[in-house]
Specification:
single chain, Glutaredoxin
């Protein structure tokens, strides 16, 4: 059976990282049986990043590569009726979610307004973690942010970038149904992966305030959450 390796839970979602939760939701929506193993150590993962899957002799990393692999091998059809234009829109939304990821991560590990609350929540839910270990992870992430670019923003400027991403999503998510119609597709799983890690996040960041204020985003998130729980 296919095994998904991804980060552990936090605040009631199956993975506290948007990419792992995206893959989890996709597998659930697609009806593909899998085991879910929660880990912190990504050293055995392709490119040293989570999530990844092991399926027989195949090991696949990167969330988009995983979705492509699973779609082909298991003949997943949830995106089967999409037009070329809709597939292009999916790619653009996916790339925007990549941008939102960095802001979300920054808000947890670098923004000193929220970092202590995030640290304490991790330690409260995952007792094997230590304050020293998380401090090292914080330092490592600060280096990642600097070289990626978001780390050169001050906190409010970084947050503004994420709010702009969310504002674009708010115009794309319909009041009813899903991005491309009455049934959810892969892009809905992708959006859920990130929005659920904002909406169910118990720390009141501007990102959460924006999501909570938009009924269409909340409805979409809760609908996918119920479908995959």
């Amino acid at each position: 059976m296919l095994t998904l390796y991804s980060y552990p839970t936090l605040f009631g979602v199956a993975d506290n990282n948007g990419y792992g939760l995206k893959v989890f939701a996709f597998l659930k929506l697609a009806g593909v049986p899998f085991r879910h193993e929660h880990i912190f150590d990504a050293s055995k993962a392709p490119r040293g990043q989570l999530p990844y899957i092991v399926d027989g002799d195949d090991t696949v990393g990167d969330s988009e590569s995983i979705l492509a692999y699973v779609t082909e091998k298991y003949r997943v059809t949830i995106d089967g009726g999409l037009s070329q234009g809709q597939r292009a829109q999916n790619l653009l939304i996916t790339r925007m979610l990549d941008d939102l990821y960095w802001v979300m991560s920054y808000s947890r590990w670098k923004d000193e307004r929220y970092w202590p609350l995030f640290r304490d929540a991790l330690m409260r839910e995952h007792h094997a973690l230590t304050e020293e270990g998380l401090a090292k992870a914080k330092e490592f992430n600060a280096q990642r942010y600097y070289y990626q670019g978001i780390g050169r923003y001050d906190a409010d400027a970084a947050m503004a970038r994420g709010l702009a991403d969310l504002n674009a999503l708010a115009t794309l998510i319909p009041a009813r149904g899903y991005v491309h119609g009455a049934t959810p597709g892969s892009i809905d799983a992708g959006i859920y992966g990130f929005i659920a890690n904002i909406y169910f996040y118990e720390i009141d960041t501007p990102l959460k305030q924006f999501v909570v204020a938009h009924d269409n985003i909340v409805r979409h998130c809760r609908s996918i959450h119920e479908a995959v729980s």
